[in-house]
Amino acid sequence: MTADKFSALFNARSVALVGASKDGRKWGFVTLKHLVDGGFGGRIYPVNPSENEILGLKVYKSIDDLPETPDMAVIVVPPPAVPAVIKQCVGKGIKAGIIITAGFAELGGKGVRIQQEIAETARAGGMVFVGPNCNGVMSPWNKQYVQFPSFFVPPGPIAVVAQSGNVMDSLARQVMMYGQGCSVCVASGNEASLHIEDYLEYLADDPHTRVILSYVEGFKDGGRFIEVASKVSKKKPIIVVKAGKTQAGARAAASHTASIAGSDVIFDAVCKQSGIIRAASLDELINIGLGLLRQPLPKGRGLGIVTAGGGWGVLAADACAALGFDVVKLPDDTIEELDKLLPAWWNRGNPVDLVAGVAGDNIFKAIELVMQVPSVDSMMFLSIMPALKVRGFDAPQEPVAREKWGEEITAAVIEAFERLNGIADKYHKPLVVASEHMWSTAVEQAKIGYTLGQHNAVCYHMPHEAATVLDAMVKYNDYLREKAH
Amino acid sequence: MTADKFSALFNARSVALVGASKDGRKWGFVTLKHLVDGGFGGRIYPVNPSENEILGLKVYKSIDDLPETPDMAVIVVPPPAVPAVIKQCVGKGIKAGIIITAGFAELGGKGVRIQQEIAETARAGGMVFVGPNCNGVMSPWNKQYVQFPSFFVPPGPIAVVAQSGNVMDSLARQVMMYGQGCSVCVASGNEASLHIEDYLEYLADDPHTRVILSYVEGFKDGGRFIEVASKVSKKKPIIVVKAGKTQAGARAAASHTASIAGSDVIFDAVCKQSGIIRAASLDELINIGLGLLRQPLPKGRGLGIVTAGGGWGVLAADACAALGFDVVKLPDDTIEELDKLLPAWWNRGNPVDLVAGVAGDNIFKAIELVMQVPSVDSMMFLSIMPALKVRGFDAPQEPVAREKWGEEITAAVIEAFERLNGIADKYHKPLVVASEHMWSTAVEQAKIGYTLGQHNAVCYHMPHEAATVLDAMVKYNDYLREKAH
After folding, report:
1. Which of B45, B42, B51 lies closest to B21, judged by CA?
2. Which among A102, B234, B257, B371 is placed 20 to 30 Å from A12, CA to CA?
């Protein structure tokens, strides 16, 4: 795949929207509106034989009529009209397209044949396309939002490649809620032209992309996927949720994007071989992606836990040990140093239970002492509340004072995370955090999560989530180390 | 255990707070303040030999000086002073207490002996107590909040019994964020007097409690726990997270609440035998609890899925099949009826993929058609957006209009859930929902989740979460059916 075709797709300077509509309920309208609303800076050419103007834009009767060859065509015409449109695109010299229209291979029978015909026409004409049966592509750095929902994920370091439009939207929205942004989001649909591995290959060298999140139902070319993924993994992490693990799921995948799910055991082997980090759910996918953005990779499975809540410490130790971490025995000299910071009745073990009453600087000092233990490769800190510099924890009830209080808590959380991230950097060991926000409402917590992301930090909701992230980091580091030899 | 002692504990008309303090950083102040702030309607007697007045309340020099025998004593004095305080309580005729103070059996050695002494004094004097080493008890129906954080979970149907104060707080706060309320929340601490099974026994007959969520690190009396839990499970569901599954977790549990975690395999058997629903994480605990509050129980493992997002349908089918659900083949006549509602290219399978463009009434009709299939015992509906009655999905950017839009979306979500819950009731089959809120911000989503709870509904975040809830429902129904014979 040549880079200029991907450039036409993700960094288009001009876009034709074939099947543009005035009807607010139709994709031909919504897609056009969101391209405009998203702030696309290039030229937009709506195409529809029966309209003159939509959303203030001049409408062209056909692709032939366009005043230039656009970089890219978005195709939302009904299924029977797609083959002819692709011919016209090729005739005009268009190099890249997005076929949103559904009703092809996923229906079997005739749909398979028409899809093959489209793919062959495009291939012969030197055109590549996303889809068919997809819901778009977001390229936030180019303010190029070809999509159905009315949100606009900001530019950032996370690429999303999903064989499902609603999963792509889910993931992009989660990224946004966590205060982060995306480099590129692709719903790859039936993959008649561009396959998942083509996007991976492009993203490997995309300077904006630092981690790749992917949702996969099946492979069109498993061999090439492995080959590409193995190379890309050496440059940046690929985290994948693979659906169709069960027969019921595989059947659903076949009727969804005409995917053949394949054996789940084999996919596990593929992941191991090609350095792919496999996530069990979309939540886990996001969690791991956010963690890999910021943290140094751990050299091994030795783990230190510092917790301001006893129960959470137990849950974290359980979750980590179950994943193969060694919750290391702290050396005597570390215990002695911790004795100076903590009350006489602290548990003298790992997890280090901070005991109620320990607060502020002593917490950061305790974390740093555990970080210095040579057998500790990574750390987890649980329950950030006592680490926050705030005047007190009694939340005011009066609305204006409460809002100010919420802002103070958020600022204190950011400050604590910057300190924690500083410790991680100093010792080149990851330090992941899971915490409740006990003194905040649901709305205040949503704001905290968002603001943290804007400061390139993440607070996991539960200890087992943080454990899964550390596990992914170790696996990825193992792959990189193995391949370096 | 006699009911009047529990009544003294959870429905106190008068409370002594022994170890009350003026120092805002101390539990003796915070606990007192929260008892006041929570709106406790009974009499409060702070006890401290060196103070005269705290927070406007008259302070008593000793328990002996109190003008009446209070129903209950909250004890926050330092560890060495606790045995004498218990003696004074017994001398005054106090029947129930909460010992917040830590530093007993969880430290081993001398701590074990002092704890035994306290327990024996109380037992001989006819007094029961929560703790030691706990962070309180909330009894929202009595506005009796003996706790550290400054939030006040409203009264409701969910009981929380946790062998960890921070876990109790986490769970209570989650309940609150989901717009629900608690009947009673107990952090049971070291359980020197009252054991987890004592609380369960009380809650079985508590009219406010409809589900019981519990976090367990170990048992003081395993035999009695099984006996009690088996009986209570017949009346209301008990859902448990058991920590200390691994060696690292068990070690942490021992130093946390002096618990002996015991074999995890044995605990699985205990759950099966006594009808306990075991949850893998605190999130799952809450999810299952919320689901059991509202939904009819499923008669078997036949499952129907209706989805407005293809990828989510695949993920749901996978998650459910992996848990042993049969994603049933829909009968021909159901397919024919669905043909009348859905576009020609719908997948004609289960999950029923609604395909973009299907909206409003047709969605509810499709769900109802699947509900009517005899082999369908329960249903899952994914991605609620197209089921919402709203003017359109283009969110305004202007702040005031945006806020109004947020309220409209929330109202539409509530309306859709009331319709869905109506369908569940009509067919006596559970209908669980998982959805993104694609047209909402993180803050709007938090408000939606809260408002749903206030209408006794819950929207799960991810398909696999909804699958776990259905699985718990089937297991609980199996237990009830088995025990009915």
Report:
1. B51
2. A102
